[in-house]
Each structure stands twice: as structure tokens, then as C-alpha cells.
Amino acid sequence: HWTPRLNSHHVSPHLLDLLPAKNGEEPTIQFLLEIVDILTNYVKKTFDRSTKVLDFHHPHQLLEGMEGFNLELSDQPESLEQILVDCRDTLKYGVRTGHPRFFNQLSSGLDIIGLAGEWLTSTANTNMFTYEIAPVFVLMEQLTLKKMREMIGWAGGEGDGLFSPGGAISNMYSVMMARYKYFPEVKTKGMSAAPRLVLFTSEHVRDTGRVIPADLEAKIIDAKQKGYVPLFVNATAGSTVYGAFDPINEIADICEKYNLWLHVDGAWGGGLLMSRKHRHKLAGVERANSVTWNPHKMMGVPLQCSAILVREKGILAGCNSMCAGYLFQPDKQYDVNYDTGDKAIQCGRHVDIFKFWLMWKAKGTIGFEQHIDKCLDLSQYLYNKIKNREGYQMVFDGVPQHTNVCFWYIPPSLRSMPDSEERREKLHRVAPKIKAMMMESGTTMVGYQPQGKNVNFFRMVVSNLAVTQSDIDFLIDEIERLGQDL
Amino acid sequence: HWTPRLNSHHVSPHLLDLLPAKNGEEPTIQFLLEIVDILTNYVKKTFDRSTKVLDFHHPHQLLEGMEGFNLELSDQPESLEQILVDCRDTLKYGVRTGHPRFFNQLSSGLDIIGLAGEWLTSTANTNMFTYEIAPVFVLMEQLTLKKMREMIGWAGGEGDGLFSPGGAISNMYSVMMARYKYFPEVKTKGMSAAPRLVLFTSEHVRDTGRVIPADLEAKIIDAKQKGYVPLFVNATAGSTVYGAFDPINEIADICEKYNLWLHVDGAWGGGLLMSRKHRHKLAGVERANSVTWNPHKMMGVPLQCSAILVREKGILAGCNSMCAGYLFQPDKQYDVNYDTGDKAIQCGRHVDIFKFWLMWKAKGTIGFEQHIDKCLDLSQYLYNKIKNREGYQMVFDGVPQHTNVCFWYIPPSLRSMPDSEERREKLHRVAPKIKAMMMESGTTMVGYQPQGKNVNFFRMVVSNLAVTQSDIDFLIDEIERLGQDL
């Protein structure tokens, strides 16, 4: 039960009394401290394993209003006390993605330094448009991107890059740069200035989900014979479901042979570059023309934090700059090469760099390495635990390359049933049923999906440094508890 | 001078000791409270007019390290004390975009409720991918978008929409939807499946920067005669420099006549829909097929917060959904229509809704109306103050439609000089010189730019509720102080 802790003579009833803060400094700061109290309590509980991961309700239940939690907006303002209650309720009915037993997404965890970085970023409330309004953040972005390019292996960390709102948009940048590199006239004349371009990315996969180089080459030749123009190959470094790494060196050979742009989508797997033990899985990445790498996935940086990195200098600006004099003035008193906004397809751009920069300062490169190595060790622990355990079947053979462990849980009722369409249909329904029960009991969350001819299976991933072996054990116990009678 | 306030026996030297918080709860919370202390001090000073807007340094100065502020990243971790110092320095050398005398960008101000909303959002650290992991935020997005569609005037608030990372990306969604509406085969067959499409947006403008409908129609006819296919017209509601509103009803007539998609880019001007006094400037917006509206601009919501709204239901999903079974499972226990992620071009999507929803709760619709009306009143105050003042010349005639007031300051040395190329060149250099001096003295910031044949002029905008008439007076005094001897 919520008790107002503000002294009533300090509390302004409405938002408008908070501003300007100079005339209402005390209530403003009091209100922020009340919010911080709510948030620090949430942080404490998030890491407490006796707290549930979520308190599940259906959409119609939340829309009808839970214990007075009213989502509807109105013409009239609410009191600050009610705003505090709304904040508590928002957290109460949400999902604790930082909980050590939340394994549902590639992004998880709640890094305290990253969190502090986000709080500071929102307090600074500026944008990455120009050096003029974001001098420190613009420089942090440049220095951090250079470090990332060094990790990729580009000589001297040379090249260019940007932080973008996510992996899909980073990948879009790579396609735009490739098109500009080979057909720059598209920028001014449109797509009709280019021939029919073809992009290649993995869909046909072998058992582990990796691209087959010979198959890729055959498809390139086939496209050319049909009169199309192959432009771009995407090599996935850490696929979403299997965590598979495409063989970059073999693909790079093909790209060189046919003069194609090589992009490495390391949104999920890029973080492994920080680990001396695991970076070999991206061998050849230095041969890529561009790389997507999302620190908000494997490296535990709060959302959003995704980088597009490119080897050739100048191409990012060449591709995207509009040289709009009304946005970027050349006659400023400082070096306007630091006005990076014209490289972006966005005008305003959120400051995604600071939390990452601050985490790197706080952990050092070796801290990220420890993070990566620990998460991969935990996945190996899970793999070893279940690979020969009764009631489990792995989706693909061999040790996982990333933290992805894909498996079926086979309830006792299906264990002796011979393979058949009926059994497959039954097995297909097992993971969704267990997942629904997990969510309703609120104890843990893990993803499932079908893939190709494989019926629904669990995909376990670990990217949260707070996870321990006991949490892995808990997940397996929970699957067995919920699934034994299916 | 910074004094460590953490008790040394509570302080862990490094980040790794903060996690998991369960075992290091005290230092974790202590660290967060230290951060909050830094941030609340920053908030207080931001609203204190005796504080500078910025403490300007050139890029090379910051890169060399100011008083020990080292931007470089290293292999080894830093102590938590140093992290706190880094946070202070980051704010110290940044720009106070919430300061009542910062007028440099369309986004300004520091709304305390919005700030609290961002702090909560980053603590929740989830993404808008599915109802499963963001149940409350997904519903808030739906309800808020519906309210925005009601403000636009679409019957019953029907339609669809999304929050995107910014106005440029919202506008891109509109182009993609228009293309899908008329040429759906582009989704599967590529651009070669469509004819040569033409988009229209204002470049040829009259004095106030508004589109001339007859000119638009002539250009559409011309494009058709050349064999192109007109697809899309963008009507700008609040242009960046002049704050001009295109005549939407007249443009809508033309779009209906030629069967074109009408998009209204209200990134800057959309906020005026909240004001009964000013919404007539967007008359006809309900006839648009899609609307971009950035609450992070005129409505003072922290960055990033931009919405794309569309009148026709189903087209957003139709255009963007990939139905990837590995991302969106149809066999969940809840109504998966709430899994909005498949409508977006992104996979992970930052939670931009909460701060806006919380501000709407706290202010009510009438609070936003007061915000809009106050900012436009202040611009009118500026306009009235300088329109006949010696040494000022307005860039366009008449009362500004938005908060944009565009003007030249003419130093005494140029006032009696007859119009000539020499005078124009001299005048062109005035605004950059004054701006550079403003930044170096740190007292205020306002934007300038050339536009078409107009040499550099100042563009004043107001979107921060903390601004008062005295701040407008200050700006004019400061321009005259810095510019009188030029």
C-alpha cells in the first residue's frame, strides 16, 4: 500500500507548479526524489530472486483498470500524488527484464552504470545533431566508434560510423551505403537509375544455421545469368534463434571475387569481439565493408544502443548528406567536421552513446570481456546439463557458438511415442503451454518459436551478468515442474 | 571542487561489485543516489538564470582533456568515484538545453514529469516489441495514439500509428505506406515492380514559405506528361525555419483530384492541434492519409518522441509485417493483436511513450494547450517588440504563424549603407559573429541560417514553458550588446 511521503506543505498539486524550478525548487526536487525512491526500490527487487519476473494480466484486464490504475488520458491534470501512484503501477504491471530469471530476449539485464548513464542522458536532454548542442556526446561517439573499429581490426581504427536506433536501421544504413558506393546516381535520380539489384542473406541454412558458401556462390551466378546485379551480401554473426556465425572469410572471398559489398550483421554476436576467447567466431570481420553491432544486446547496455560501422571514410556522409544550409551552417567558429548530423538519415538523433561510454569507462575492455565469457560459460553449463538429460532433445548438434541453446522439452507422455505427425503436433504445443504457465506463475521467462521444419522449441539466451548457474538450474526445474503432466 | 560523499566502507571501487545488486545492495543504491544528487543539482541550476547556458570549448580542447576530464576509453576499469567525476564533467562541458535562454533548437526545455518518465523508462529497460515484455507500455501507446488521432479529427480516433525514433523516420513510414497502398507488389518484388514514382514537397515557396497550390498542380500535371507517376504530396505544418503552414485543404483538393497520398508533416506544428486558438492553422489535417507529429518538439516532451499516424487501418501492418514466426508467435495465451512489433521496420524499439503519457496525465490536454498558447504568445511578444525597432528587419511580413520569428539584426555600421552586394556580404557575417560571441560568453543561444536568397538571419523559436518575456528581452539586449560594434 502506497503512503505519500511528501510533506503536504511541500507538495504542489499539479505539474505546472513544478516549473520553472527556480520558483518551485523544493517541490521539484522533492518530486524527483520520490520518483527515485520508487525506482531504487524497483532496482532492489529486480535483483531479488524472491521477486516475480512479472505479474501477468491480459490486455483487457489492464484496459479495464487494475485496482484503480487508469490508463486513459483526460483533459484535466492529475495531482502529483496520483502521478507517483501511476509510476508505481506502471512498474508493478510491467516485466522485470533485469531479473536474473528473465531469459526472453537478446537484450536483458539492468546494468547500474548504464542506468545512471541513461538518467544523465535524459537530464541533459540534447541531441546528436551538432557539436554546438552536444559537444561532449559527439566526441564520446567518435572516440567510442573508433575503439569499436579497432576491435573489428580496421587499421588504426580508421573508417566511420554512427549510433542508430537499432539493428534494423543500422543494417538499412549498410544497404544504402552499398547502393551509393556502386550506384551513386540513385541519390539524386532515384531507383530507376540503378539496374535490378540483388542482396543475399541467409535463409537456406544447414543444420547449424550457417550460410553454405558454395550455395551462396551458385546463387550469385544464377542472379547474374538472369540479368540481375548482385550488390550486397550479409553475413550474420550471431543469428537470432540459433546464434549461428556465418563463415565470414569464405564469404569475403566470394565478395571479392564478384566485387560485392560485404556487410556483417553482428547485432547479436558483435559483442564477442571483446573476448579474446570467443572473437575467433567472427574471424574475417575486418574484411567487411560495414558492420552492425548492438551493445544493447550481448554487452548489457540499456536500450537503445546500436552502431553501424563502415570501413571506407566519407561514404556515410556522401550517401546521406543533404548539405542543408538551414540545418548545418558552415560559418561557425568551431571545426564543423564535428557536426555529424548530416551523416544520419535522421535530423534529431537521441544520445545513445553516453551510457555505453560510461559503462566502458567503468568496466574497461576487460570488464566487457568478463561479461561475454561468463555468459557463454553459463550457456555451456546449460548445454552440458541437458544434452544427455532425459526428456530433452537438442535442436542442433554440437556446442552452441553463442549463448543460444535451442532445445525441446519432451513431456513423459510423448517420450515413448514414435515419431509421427501426431507426435510433432503435440510437441509443437508443449513450449507455448509451458511458456503460458511460466508467465502466469511469473517465475521465469524464456522464448520459443518454430523454425523451418522444426516445431516449437525453446531458445535460451543469456546476456545478463546477474545470472548464475542456480538460475539456469531453476529454469530447467521450472520447465519440468510445469511440463511433466502435458 | 568535488568531495566524495560516499562512506568509504560502503563504496565498492568498481562496477563489478555493484552487480548483482542483491549482494551489493547498499553500494548500488548509494551510487544511484550520488548520481541523483549530481542530476538534481544540474536541474536546479538549469532553471537558474544566473547559470550560463554553456561553457564553450573547441573540440581539440575537450579532446586534449579539460582539468583531467579524459574522454579516452581504456582496457582497465575506473573507480566509481571517478565515474561520478566523469558524470559531473559531462554535464559541466555540455549545453543546458533546458535553460530558459536556450532558443537554439525546436526541442528545448526540461519538463520534470517528462524527465521522471524517462528515468522510469530506462529503469524498466524493456522494448516495444511485444505485449509479452511491455504490456503496460504497449497499451499506453495504443491509447495515446488514439487520442492523437482524435485531435487530428479522424472519426472515433480510428486508424493506426506508431512512435518512431524521429520525424525523418516517421516521414519515411508515410512514404512506405503510400507506396504499399498503390503498388503493394513492391514489398515482395522490389522497386522494379513500380513505375517511376514522384513525391512532392515544398521547395519552391512564396514569401512566407507556404506551398502555392496552383504551382503544385502544374508540377503534378508536368510529371504525368513526362510519364512519371505522382504518388505522394507532403504538406508541411510548421516548417523548420519560417514556421510556415501549407494550406492543407487546398492541397487535399488536389490530392483527391489526382488520387495521391496526402501526408502532413506536423513534426514541428502538430502540437498546435492541442490549442483551440491555434489549431485552425492545420485546418484540413483530417483529410490527410498520414500525419507526422513530434511531441518532443513543440510539446516539450524529452527526446525522442515522434509519432506517425495513419488514417487507414491495416496498412501499417500490411506494409511492414514480415510475419516472422521466430519473432512473433501466433500461439500465445493472450491476444497477439497487441504484439505491435511487426508493424515497425525495427525489431527492438525504444519505449518512447511513457514520458509522453505521464506528461499528458500530469498536465491534461488543457495543460498542453496552455503550453502551446504561452509559447506562441511569447513569439508574438518578440515580434511586436522588434518589428519596428531600429536595427531590426523581419525576414517575412506579417505575424508569425508558429513560434518562429525570423529577423536580421543590422548593426549601426550597416544601417545607413544602401543595399548592395557588399552590404549583403557584411550582413551575412553578422549573425555568425554574434552567435559565436554568445556561445563564448555562454549567456544565450539562438539559431541562424541563410535561406534561398536571404543572407544569414536569426531564427528565434520558443518551445520551453520556462521562458518568460524577460528572457526574450534578454536575448534582444544581448544581440545588441554583442552586435553594436560589428
From TrEMBL, chains A, B:
It comes from the Eukaryota. This is Glutamate decarboxylase 1b. GO terms for cellular component: cytoplasm; presynaptic active zone. Belongs to the group II decarboxylase family. GO terms for biological process: gamma-aminobutyric acid biosynthetic process. Keywords: Decarboxylase, Lyase, Pyridoxal phosphate. It comes from Sander lucioperca (Pike-perch). Homodimer. InterPro entries: PyrdxlP-dep_de-COase, PyrdxlP-dep_Trfase, PyrdxlP-dep_Trfase_major, Pyridoxal-P_BS. The lineage of its organism: Eukaryota, Metazoa, Chordata, Craniata, Vertebrata. The modification N6-(pyridoxal phosphate)lysine is found at K297.
